[in-house]
SRPBCC family protein (Mariniflexile aquimaris), 175 residues
Amino acid sequence: MIVLLYVFIGIIVSIIIIMFIAPQKYAVNRSVVINKPVSEVFDYLKYIKNQDDWSPWKKKDPNMKQSFVGVDGEVGFIAKWEGNKDVGMGEQEILSVKENQLIQSKLRFFKPWKSESDAYLRVVELEKNQTNVTWGFSGKNPMPFNVFMVFFNMEKTVGKDFEEGLVSLKNILEK
């Protein structure tokens, strides 16, 4: 009985230690070069509904329910979704649009767990007909939920999805 008590206390102490050393912040981004002018790329990216054509998450549940509030491409527009276990339930709201530079949005996930992330799409003109697109997001994992990050590699898992999405985006815009 005493051994079980020591094992239990050891597990609890280990979890507490992990909570204090596990990362509480995350950030993931990927980039691609698209052979189109920055204005053309930006005009496509600022419309969240266009993400249905290139986002890897739409492919994971083509039957997800979607609804929209506001004017797409403008601050305040909200895209809501509810899908299978791979995409969950959440919404994306446009917070800022800096013409030919940056679209910032807030991602709010409600299922399978609640979280918020800051997302962005940044475009930079490399040459007259060449644009670098960076897609990324960041957020915080409050204690004790940050323990999960010890066992889940956000950079690898979400990064792979970003890479897949950016390849699709490049293919669409360069056609």
